[in-house]
Write a structure and sequence with these properties.
Layout (H helix, E strand, L loop, with lengths): L5 H13 L4 H9 L6 H14 L2 E4 L6 E4 L3 H16 L4 H11 L4 H17 L1
Antiparallel strand pairs: 1-2
Helix pairs in contact: 2-3
Amino acid sequence: MSKPTEAELEILSLLWEKKEASVRQIHEEISKTKETGYTTTLKIMQIMFAKGMVTRDEKSRTHIYKPATNQGETQKSLLKNLMTTAFGGSAKKLVMQALGQDNPSKEELNEIREFLDQLEKKS
């Protein structure tokens, strides 16, 4: 699968959440947060279908779209690309930048510590 654009990633996120949806359903969700035309949403989803990012059930008049890849695989691919291109392949730089951008809650920090502990046990 090719790297999704920002608009494609927004649609994929909605499809991962909903499991499947029509163009109208996706358009209605996107319209809650920004102004966009129905035909724009339709065109993006058609392009996503052509790229293999989504599948399309054409049995009924209203086509139903589903994500062609799972969220975890896409996130892993995007993160690997970001780490390579923006952080010179350094996981440390990526994590330090991510944690420095926001103030993680105590709960999030505890989860991060637990994750790091698990990684240390594996090595």
